[in-house]
Every structure is written in C-alpha cells, then in structure tokens.
C-alpha cells in the first residue's frame, strides 16, 4: 500500500493471541514440559547439594572417629605417633570422584532441560527479531527515496513484522525441542531412577555408619571421663556435658540424611512425571497446553509492547 | 565435592576382598544387632572393667561392620561408573539441540544484517 501511513496505535491484542495460537497449534508441543523441568531442576539441585554434603560430612565423621580412637590408645601405646594414625576413608577418592561426576552430570542434565523448555525464547532472539523490523522500516524509507512508487513501513507495521519473526523463531525452536527432548527424557528415565536408587542405597549405608561412628565417639568420651583421675569438678562436668551433645549431633545427622532420602525419592517421581508429560501421557496435558498457550500469548504481547513506537 | 584431608598416613587399602555373602544386608544387620546389644550392655555395666571388656568386643564388631559398609559403598561405586556414559550421552544430545536453537537466532540475526546491508546500499544510491 504505497505511501499509506498506518496509525501508531497498536492493533488489538487478540491478533497477537491468534498468532500465538497459530504457533502452538502448529506443533509447539514441548512447552508443557516447562513446569515439570523447572520442578525437576529444583529437586535435582536439592539432591545434588544434599548428597555432596552428606558424603563430605559422613566421610569426615568417620575420619574423626578413627583419630579419636587412636588418641584413646595414647597411654597404652609407647611409640604412639600422630603421623601414623591409620585413617581409612569411608569412601576412597575414586569413589567420591565418580559420585561427583554423576551428580554434576545429573545437575547439568536438569539445568539444560529447564533452559531448553523454559527459555526457548531468549533475549538474543528478541533482539534479532526486533532488528529485522527496524531494518525493514529503514529499508522501506530508502526504497521510497530511490524508487518513484516506493512505500513506507510504519512503526506499527515494523513491530508486527518483528513479532512475526519472533514467533517464527520461537516456533522453530519449539519444534527442535519437541522433536528431540521427549525422546532424551524417556531414555534417561531408567537412568535417573537408577541414580536415585544408588544414592538411596548409599545414604542408607551412610546413616548406619554415621550412627555407629557417633556411638564409638560417645563411648570413647565416656571411657575418657571414667578413666580420667585428675579432672576438677568443673572440668569433669564440662566433659560429661559433651555426651548428650554427641547424641544430639547423631540425631541431627540422621534426620538430615533421612530428609535427603525423601528428596531423592521425590526426584525420581518428578522425573517420571516429566517423562509422562514428554510422552503426552499426562492427563493434565491439555490443561498444561492451555496454560502454555496463554503464557505464549502473554510473552508475545510483552515482546510486542517492548518495541518502540516512534 | 571437597575431598577429605589426609590427616594421617593411609592404612593399607588393599585388604582382601570381602565375600558377597558377608556384604549381604542380612549379614550386616546381624552384626549391627550384635553391636547394638553390646552397646546396651556397655551402658548397663556398673564398673569400668566390665565396660572396657564389653567395648573391646564391640570395637571388633564395629570394625567388621565398617569394612562391610566400605565394601558395599565400593560396590555402589562400580554401579555409579556404569551409569556415567548414559548421563554424558543425554547431556551431549541436549547440547546438540541447544546449538540448533542458537543457530535459529543466528539465522534471524543474519537476515537483519542482510537487510541492513541493503539499506546501506540504498542510502548510497539515494544520495547519488
């Protein structure tokens, strides 16, 4: 429409909603995953951090027990040497490294899933599509200068072009996600379950071992008090006071590890839900899709609103 | 994950392998029950000599349980190792999708760049 200028007022948002609807109906099926990937990523972070803390704390506790046991033998071992205290780590360095590798891999998997499904539309895409509209508007002006007929693209038309390009980019990205991610999630589901089972097995062992380590520390402290002859009443009271504190730490550690086991179980369940959603087996899938439709329309509307009008 | 500090020389970590029968959960539980029973006996004993005797036996059981736990954890290490390739493979596949999506944005940027280049030529032509 050569020479015709369109008002700078924005077209009704229903047009944009229709655009979003088109995008989604055309195959943007990856979007319902976003809610579950976010939940899975949060649960994974809790489990990874908690597991690393658990390994660190229980290995250190076991080292402490061995050192305390060696200290208790001081008076009965004439050649006692602090350089030669036999400390055997509960889990060796290789074992810790492998567990760290698996946990970091799981964290990366969850984070990448979340990024792919939640942030399909990036700031870079927004900037690139806005640039297309701006350059098109400039192009229309220059065309008017060099051709007799020419046409001029208004800001509104340029913004609509930018929004269309943005929607196209989002659509293409969504297609990439929907064609690849569900299969990866499905194939990873038994692996995530296996990792959770392994972590759970580990934590069960760590709970038992830390219980016994605290028991040993408790008896070593009690034995020290009963054999110590030269303690003043105040010193004796202070040493006795350490006994219930050891029990308190024992209970706190066990509670922490029990909580971690609960979170690990939730992690496996969350991934199952994620896999079900990815395969469209979730009965709430339609509701998710509708929610995502609304979110997509809102996102496009926000992008459109962010574009300059003059 | 931080490694524990090596507070002292390591003891011999090349102990002979423990029979799978001993690492079976029921075996560990049997030792654990004995350890707990000796613990109750320790606190119920009324003189230091009896307590020391009970704890001496209990220390031996503790050492056995600890070795069984270490063997179980080592077995789990092997299972963790087996699962690493699957996780790495999934992450590589996700990375590939991420790269494809980045390429879409790059393509749109290329379109914008081409339009800008045409603009520059038209500006030059208009000024002639």
Features:
heterodimer, A: 310 residues, mainly alpha, 0% strand, B: 128 residues, 80% helix, rod-shaped, disordered N terminus
Would you write up a description of this structure?
The complex is a heterodimer of chains A (310) and B (128). With 310 residues, chain A is mainly alpha-helical. Chain A has a domain at 30-74 and 87-120 and 170-306. Helices cover 79% and strands 0% of the residues of chain A. Chain A contains seven helices and no strands. Chain A has helices at residues 13-25, 33-72, 93-118, 123-146, 155-227, 233-278, 285-306. The two termini of chain A are 20 Å apart. Mean pLDDT of chain A is 80; it is low at 1-30. With 128 residues, chain B is mostly helical. Chain B has one domain (22-126). In chain B, 80% of the residues lie in helices and 0% in strands. Chain B contains three helices and no strands. Chain B has helices at residues 20-23, 25-44, 48-126. In chain B, helix 2 crosses helix 3. The longest helix of chain B has 79 residues, at 48-126. Chain B is rod-shaped. The termini of chain B are far apart. Residues 2-14 of chain B have low confidence and may be disordered. The interface between A and B is large, with 83 and 65 residues.
């Amino acid at each position: 429409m050569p020479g015709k200028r369109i008002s700078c007022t924005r077209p009704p948002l229903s047009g944009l909603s229709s655009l979003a609807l088109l995008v989604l109906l055309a195959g943007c099926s990856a979007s319902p995953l976003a809610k579950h990937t976010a939940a899975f990523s949060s649960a994974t972070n809790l489990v990874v951090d908690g597991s690393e803390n658990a390994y660190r704390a229980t290995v250190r506790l076991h080292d402490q027990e061995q050192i305390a046991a060696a200290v208790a033998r001081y008076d009965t071992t004439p050649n006692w040497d602090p350089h030669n205290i036999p400390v055997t780590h509960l889990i060796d360095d290789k074992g810790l490294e492998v567990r760290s590798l698996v946990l970091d891999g799981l964290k990366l998997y969850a984070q990448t899933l979340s990024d792919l499904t939640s942030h399909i539309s990036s700031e870079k895409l927004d900037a690139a599509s806005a640039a297309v509209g701006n350059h098109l508007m400039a192009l229309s002006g220059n065309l008017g200068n060099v051709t007799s007929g020419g046409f001029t693209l208004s800001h509104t038309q340029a913004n609509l072009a930018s929004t269309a390009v943005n929607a196209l980019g989002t659509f293409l990205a969504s297609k990439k996600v929907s064609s690849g991610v569900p299969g990866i999630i499905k194939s990873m589901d038994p692996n995530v379950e296996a990792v959770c089972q392994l972590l759970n097995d580990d934590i069960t062992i760590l709970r038992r071992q830390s219980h016994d380590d605290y028991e040993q520390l408790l008896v070593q402290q009690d034995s020290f008090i009963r054999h110590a002859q030269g303690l003043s009443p105040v010193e004796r009271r202070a040493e006795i006071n350490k006994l219930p504190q050891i029990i308190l730490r024992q209970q706190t550690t066990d509670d922490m590890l029990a909580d971690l086991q609960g979170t690990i179980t939730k992690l496996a369940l969350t991934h199952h839900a994620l896999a079900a959603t990815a395969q469209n087996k979730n009965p709430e899938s339609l509701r998710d899709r509708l929610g995502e439709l609304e979110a997509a329309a809102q996102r496009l509307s926000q992008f459109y609103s962010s574009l300059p009008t003059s | 994950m931080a490694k524990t500090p090596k507070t002292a020389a390591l003891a011999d970590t090349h102990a002979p392998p423990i029979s799978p029968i001993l690492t079976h959960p029921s075996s560990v539980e049997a030792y654990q029950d004995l350890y707990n029973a000796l613990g109750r006996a320790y606190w119920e004993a009324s003189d230091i000599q009896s307590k020391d005797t009970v704890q001496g036996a209990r220390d031996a059981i503790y050492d056995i349980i600890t070795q069984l736990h270490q063997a179980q954890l080592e077995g789990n290490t092997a299972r963790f190792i087996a699962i690493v390739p699957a996780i790495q493979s999934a992450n590589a596949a996700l990375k590939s999708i991420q790269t494809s999506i980045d390429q879409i944005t790059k393509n749109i940027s290329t379109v914008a760049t081409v339009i800008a280049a045409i603009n520059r030529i038209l500006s030059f032509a208009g000024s002639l």
